[in-house]
Amino acid sequence: MEFKMEDRHTECLVKNRSFLCSKISLSTGLLAKLSESGVITDEHLQKLQNIERNDTTKAAVLEFLTEVLPRRAPEAFNLFLEALCESAQKHIADHLKKSLGDVCSEDAGTFERLREELRSHYERRLASIRPMPWQQDIYLNLTDVFVERQLNLKTNYKGDERIVTMDDLFTPQQTEEIPRRLLIEGNPGIGKSTICQTLAHEWGKQSCGRHCGTLCVHSFDLVLYFHAGDFIAEESVAHAVQKHLLPSDCRITTSELQGVIEAKNVLIIVDAFDEANAGNRTLDRLIEGDILRHKTLLITSRPNFLQNKLSLFDSKFKVEGYDKEEQLKHVKRYAAHQNIASAPFESMLKERSIRDLCSNPLNLTLLCLLREEDTQLRNTRTALYTSIHRIIKEKAAKRLKLIEAEVEESLLRPLYRFAFEAHRENKTVVGENDFKKVKNFQQVCEVGYLTNEVIISRLQPEKRFQFTHKTFVEFLTAKHIAEMDREERLNWMQHLRYANYHIRIGGLAIYDDFNESAELTEMASLVIKETHFSYEHYPISLDSSCEASHQLLRLIAELNVVPPELADVICKGRPPLINIHYYCSASCRRGMLKLCNLRFQPPIPMNVDLRDSRDEERMSFVQKLIKCKSIECAKIWIVPDDHTELWNDVREWRIGQANSVQQVSIHCGYIRGIPCEEFSFGNHLSELQLIGFQPSHSYVLEAALHKPLTSLQLIDCDELDDGCISQIHQLLRNQRQSLQRVQLTSPWHQHFGFFLADFAQMENLQSLEISLNDSTDEEMRSLEAILKRNKLSKLTIDSRDYSGSLYSVLNEGFNSMSSLRELHLECVDIIHLPNLRHLDLINFSLLRYSILNDDGIAVLSDVLRSWRNLQHLRIDFDYDVSVAECSLRKLFEAIAGCHRLQILHFQWLEMADSVVPSVCEMIESLKQLRKFTSIWQRDESLTEEGFKQLEPIIKRNGLNTCMDLTLM
Ligand SMILES: Nc1ncnc2c1ncn2[C@@H]1O[C@H](COP(=O)(O)OP(=O)(O)OP(=O)(O)O)[C@@H](O)[C@H]1O
After folding, report:
1. Could you identify the atom of ligand 1 that is nearest to the CA of residue 194?
2. ipTM of this predicted structure
């Protein structure tokens, strides 16, 4: 890249050319200094030495003066003078300085003194960051923790932007001109001051050597670093320098300062325009170019304080929040600086409850400080937000020169109410009409939770305000809820929609601010009822998720102590089973641990799905559950990355041992190889579920051969080899008496019918799930025996090839299966199974690849009418077959008659506008329905009109809905 030297430097070199050619000695010392500071490259060096050797020193110096130096970075001139001084040619440097002085009449001595004074001031005073300015003892080393920022450069009035790095700050942008007035805008705590501080500090560190490739801060002779308030009551920049940047015994007069500032290439940095913009005459003149027009001025401000001065700026930048990479860099630098492991900080970035905060550098720094200082704080989100809120409040008090109580009373309370109202309408941006009602609104904004936004419409600018983070709206809302009176609060809670709706606001500050536990109990009962906390929850499956019933867990996670009355209410409403899913938040898990401290008799069984996350927090969570007396950690789901991890998990959690978890689900998909050490389960292993089992995992089965299994499940099982088959035969024979549940299923056309003879021997078999394909007559006879024994309560059959004999065995069997409550059929044509209507099912699924044409729907509608106790229904429609609307309507009518239905799941339902009314009627009549899912509406026959009719259903109180629709 070609650079252009400052004109006055070029002039000075031209004027002194013959002097320099005859006086300069290209000594090794000088050349070494020049290359050390980056003024010349190795190539230049060689060239100069060649010229000197083949011609004369004068010729080499001339080459340097005309071809090299003028094309280097602007600061190269000063570096050249420094190199002269340091290589015993100071007299030449002095001559040049004097000559420069002739050009611009400044006192070289004053400039040097001033520069040294400022450099050492910045180097020492700006070396650390103090995130909480009133707590001077908390500081971080700037160079160690600083994360390089990106800036959005506004490229036109419409708001188009381009990303540039900090190195490009002073590079000419739209025109060739070096920008003279620069503006950086950004939200509170986003890092504006830190950018200014870094620039001044960098400059203080003398030259940049070769590092800065462009017009960097080192190209300025002087950097003057101010807070906007420094100009108040100062008549000139020189006065402000004298008062705020120099020691009082420095003895440089303001007129000397004025001379230097005028003569030199100066950068004036002014931070926080928003904090001191009123009546700041000198600063205004500086911005307007009424004074020091040719000097570079960089101003920072929160957004939209300079609205009427925007045209004066050549470059306008915006700093935005950290992206993921910058967040990671921030926490890593922080940890390295504090000399501690970065893992806990990195996992903090993933914690859902605080993830929102992490994009703001101030909040992220506070989170790091809080996490390091007090691990307790991690335990409740309320405590964490309260700490941050306290810091923001103190910062506001300092900025606004008020005492904290005044900030709370006159600014924060109105803000809490304001947030509550915004939250109710699900807004983070508020318009003029909303804030006109609030007294002192401008000051309320300055606290730091709201930022000023101006939407430029061509006709008229519109003023709007935005909350910096959505989670803060929730926190502030909770503060308001805590201040409501009791009746108002209960009334508000009663009208909330709980299902499929995260009332996070409830999860914050409210409880700790209550003294009356009667009210707390009342509220908890309401939440238990509305979120179906006490209902039976279905065991975890791969696609199950954290739902509204966990709301209570998240609420108690926020309590420091659970009062006895509240504990009573929770014990009375205990659910028969609790699931902790992979997607549960840290707050669900903390709530669960609080629940462990209550006394449940008998203990509540719990399933925990850990999947592939082995972070410290989850590991210790499981350890605590295992030890807990009130909870029986029944089943654990793990997805080990390899055999070593599997071995570690089984050992660490003592899987299968008497006093630990005895049911396990292992996802074997990633496990390769065999552990070197012996692999074994404890002697009490009662349930083993293996997903993605392959013959290479047979050592896991081996370890279960002699355990008292009640349940063995091989799901998504690969083709078995002879060794595995005989191992399973042996296992089934060993456990013939104890096994109550077996599953051998595979989506890949596998046939496991050869185990049916073993199953037929099991007297206590209650649940059978199997994939069949091409069964032999003998196998069919075994199946018939199992069905007719009438012991099964659950049956799943998945067959690619329903031979006539399988249909007839099933259809016949249904006549005598009065114990069957759960039936799942895959790839079936239901018209061959009319005897279904003799069953008394609670849970029925017609799964994928089933044939569901108009005839099938007629049979299904018919059988549904006879299942009076049905609670759970899943229908996977056939996406290759279109069905008549009247058939669908009949089906919906039949479902509408299943009054006990709680969960309804449709897959691939073609929901056209015309069937929407009957879907609505169906759901309307299902009073007990609490979950309705309809996935993948492939056809585009649902219009916005139809969707509008569905809306009241989707939003029905107490109904958890999940609809995946495509609108036309
Ligand atoms: N680039 C960065 N690298 C590391 N930490 C940063 C960075 N920027 C900001 N921080 C952290 O965030 C805190 C707040 O940043 P800063 O004071 O610069 O924000 P601001 O935009 O000036 O805010 P306000 O408008 O409230 O004055 C700093 O004290 C520092 O701890």
Report:
1. 18
2. 0.99
